[in-house]
Design brief:
The chain is an alpha/beta fold and 418 residues long. The protein has 4 domains: 77 residues; 55 residues, OB fold (Dihydrolipoamide Acetyltransferase, E2P) (Beta Barrel), CATH 2.40.50.140; 178 residues, P-loop containing nucleotide triphosphate hydrolases (Rossmann fold, 3-Layer(aba) Sandwich), CATH 3.40.50; 84 residues, Orthogonal Bundle (Helicase, Ruva Protein, domain 3). The protein is built from 13 helices and 11 strands. A 6-stranded mixed sheet has the order 6-8-9-10-7-11. It has a 5-stranded antiparallel sheet with strand order 3-2-1-4-5, with no helix packed on it. The chain is elongated, with a radius of gyration of 40 Å. The chain binds adenosine-5'-triphosphate and magnesium ion. The site of adenosine-5'-triphosphate has 19 residues, from helix 5, helix 10 and helix 12.
């Protein structure tokens, strides 16, 4: 810019030739004027361009400043010390709180003035400063990470028709679990409470988990499913809290069905002289008992559990008013074995001369899961021999393989259920 101005000035200062006539001089002046106007025009244009450039640079500057600010605040966030998670035990009158940190000990601490008093309740989870342990914020409790993921959202792909035999069990299960949810008025009319908890028990591989999955597939109620051992947590009180939250979630999502698989992992008999770990499992069990007492049987939360060690379960779990409907899932009889074999071979390319009755006789004492293994094994034999379909001798070989394996270990499992 400055250069351009200097250049113009120099041109203006150019010595005017002295020896010009008047005409020439006026022509010279006009000429000069034109030149200068052109020059002026050019300078204006350049000025416009430079102003635009300046504006762009300014906006760029703003943008970079903003970016700098976000990066700085991100850096701050990354550098801040972590907060400790604790649980409120008691709200004291002087405005202080008794909290238990997740590692165990309890503290009396102050709290931030931005926390609403209504949010402070015993049992609420809070975040605390690491040094002073002052409560900084209240954590949302409605869905803790503990029980997240227990809700079955996609329906499981097992239907009642996939289960061989067990007709009586299916009927009983539907009466005890589905009916109170779908037609509660039947129970009100007769004046009885439907069974609170239904227990499926029986030897391994007989279809207990499968029955529960079929219930979840059939019903439109929310299905909450977890395995008993998930309730065993590292820290004291966590298991009990998980049980409490599970029931709360079930109530919020009602109508709902809670299914606890392998209940024996927390429901084993309590005994004296247990280790600290055992005592924690017992506390979880007691919370479960308390929750079962707490919910209204005509309400729309049903409880379903499965175990294969009914004999070791705590008697308190099994008394009337808790798990009071027992459904024994028995190993399949001859007829059921025929059905189960048909179910597991229905997608297979079978040769026409397969006689299921004969196969069922050969597999006396085999469980549902054993029969499934036989079907898969027979398919493997057919593949190995590059056949187009599964023939009788493949099935017989598979039975020999699976049942033979079982025989060597059967003495162990027989003892378990004796
Ligand atoms: N009655 C049945 N009809 C069809 N398939 C069955 C039946 N029983 C068992 N099966 C087969 O065996 C598999 C295992 O069954 P499931 O998981 O229900 O056993 P479980 O009774 O829960 O055993 P566990 O007590 O060891 O948990 C199923 O996936 C299924 O393929
Ligand atoms: Mg199971």
């Amino acid at each position: 810019m400055v250069e351009i101005l200097e250049d113009t000035e120099r041109r203006l200062m150019v010595n005017i030739p002295q020896d010009l006539s008047n005409d020439d001089f006026s022509r010279y002046l006009i000429d000069r004027m034109h030149q200068l106007e052109e020059r002026n025009h050019l300078i204006r244009e350049q000025n416009h361009k430079i102003v635009a450039e300046k504006r762009y640079a300014e906006s760029q500057k703003l943008k970079f400043e903003r970016e700098l600010r976000t990066i700085k605040s991100e850096l701050e966030k990354l550098k801040t010390t972590p907060l400790i998670v604790g649980t409120i035990v008691e709200v004291l009158e002087n405005g202080k709180l008794v909290v238990r940190s997740s590692t165990g000990p309890q503290f009396v601490v102050g709290l931030s003035q931005f926390i609403k008093e209504s949010e402070l309740e015993p049992g609420t989870q809070v975040a605390m400063n690491q040094q002073t342990l002052a409560v900084i914020s209240v954590l949302p409790t409605s869905r803790s990470h503990l029980v997240r993921g227990v809700e079955v959202i996609e329906s499981l792909d097992v239907e009642y028709s996939d289960i061989g035999g067990l007709e009586d069990q299916i009927r009983e299960l539907r009466e005890a679990v589905e009916l109170p949810l779908t037609r509660p008025e039947l129970f009100t009319r007769i004046g009885i409470d439907p069974p609170k908890g239904v227990m499926l028990y029986g030897p391994p591989g007989t279809g207990k988990t499968m029955l529960a999955k079929a219930v979840s597939h059939q019903t439109s109620a929310t299905f909450l499913r977890l395995v008993g051992s998930e309730l065993v947590q590292k820290y004291i009180g966590e298991g009990a809290r998980m049980v409490r939250e599970l029931f709360k979630l079930a109530k919020d999502k009602a109508p709902s069905i809670i299914f606890i698989d392998e209940l024996d992992s927390i429901g084993a008999k309590r005994y004296d002289g247990a280790t600290a770990g055992d005592r924690e499992v017992q506390r979880t069990l007691m919370q479960l008992l308390a929750e079962m007492d707490g919910f209204n049987p005509r309400g729309d939360v049903r409880l379903l559990a499965a175990t294969n060690r009914l004999d070791i379960l705590d008697p308190a779990l099994l008394r009337p008013g808790r798990f009071d409907r027992f459904i024994e899932v028995t190993p399949p009889n001859n007829e059921a074995r025929v059905q189960i074999l048909k179910i597991h071979t229905r997608n297979m390319n079978l040769s026409k001369d397969v006689d299921f009755n004969y196969l069922a006789k050969l597999t006396e004492g085999t469980s549902g899961s054993g029969l499934k293994a036989i079907a898969t094994e027979a398919g493997m034999f057919a593949i190995r021999n590059e056949k187009d379909c599964v023939e009788v001798d493949d099935l017989i070989n598979a039975i020999k393989k699976v049942v033979g394996e079982k025989d060597s270990s059967s003495s162990v499992s027989e003892n378990m259920f004796a």
